[in-house]
């Protein structure tokens, strides 16, 4: 196999809209319950960081508050914007990868796409080079594949394309 060797310490930041499964995905990645997952309407309000050794590699994961999927960046509270921006600073010198978490049951309509673009702009255009889409709720697809789902919505195609066609479910 070619390519760069993997770092001994991998730093990941999970971002996305609220209720897309960032905390659950973070726990799965770490192989332990490090972040509280609330099913009673509570949401992550502050960035949180946790570490673990996974497959012999030191792993740092930052879970960030989600933005409201219908709120423009202008409608997002200053506290939420600061917390989302601070997620990158918790794993200095910066993340190796940013996981944009999107539930496969979420409809990617024009306003959702606009909100993703606006919130990603908090990090500058270069962030897309580090970003891959982490799809959650893949069991929701039934017999369809992730590729079928991507092909069925232009907005999802745009996001995956913007991430260099990097995605995982």
Describe what you observe in this structure.
Pfam families: AIG1 (PF04548). By secondary structure, the protein is α/β, with parallel strands linked by helices. The chain has one domain: Rossmann fold, CATH 3.40.50. It has helices at 22-30, 78-89, 110-120, 146-151, 154-162; strands at 9-16, 48-54, 57-63, 97-103, 131-136, 167-168. Strand 2 and strand 3 (57-63) form a beta hairpin. The mean pLDDT is 89.
Number of domains: 1
Topology-level CATH name = Rossmann fold
Instruction: Provide the low-confidence segments as ranges.
Output: none
Main sheet strand line-up: 2-3-1-4-5-6
CATH class (first level) name:
Alpha Beta
Global geometry: globular
Fraction of residues in β-strands: 15-25%
List how many beta strands DSSP finds. Answer: 6
Structural class: alpha/beta
CATH architecture, by name, is 3-Layer(aba) Sandwich
For CATH, the homologous superfamily is named as P-loop containing nucleotide triphosphate hydrolases
Round the mean pLDDT to the nearest integer and report it. 89
Sheet with the most strands, sense and barrel status? 6 strands, mixed
SSE order, as H and E?
A: EHEEHEHEHHE
Task: Report the C-alpha radius of gyration, rounded.
Answer: 15 Å
Kindly state the percentage of residues in helix: 25-40%
Euclidean distance between termini CA atoms: 23 Å
Number of alpha- plus pi-helical segments = 5
């Amino acid at each position: 196999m070619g390519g760069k060797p993997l770092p001994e310490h991998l730093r990941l930041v999970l971002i996305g809209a609220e209720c897309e499964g960032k905390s659950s995905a973070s726990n799965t990645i770490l192989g332990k319950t490090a972040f509280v997952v609330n099913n009673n309407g509570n949401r992550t309000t502050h960035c949180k960081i946790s570490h673990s050794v996974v497959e012999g590699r030191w792993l740092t994961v930052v879970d960030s508050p989600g933005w409201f999927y219908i709120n423009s960046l202008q409608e997002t509270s200053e506290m939420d914007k600061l917390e989302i921006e601070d997620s990158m600073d918790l794993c200095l010198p910066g993340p190796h990868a940013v996981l944009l978490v999107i539930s496969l049951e979420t409809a990617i309509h024009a306003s959702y796409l606009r909100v993703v673009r606006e919130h990603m702009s908090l990090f500058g255009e270069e962030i897309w080079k580090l970003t891959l889409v982490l799809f959650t709720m893949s069991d929701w697809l039934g017999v369809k594949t992730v590729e079928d789902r991507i092909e069925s919505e232009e907005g999802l195609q745009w996001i995956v394309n913007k991430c260099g066609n990097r995605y995982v479910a």
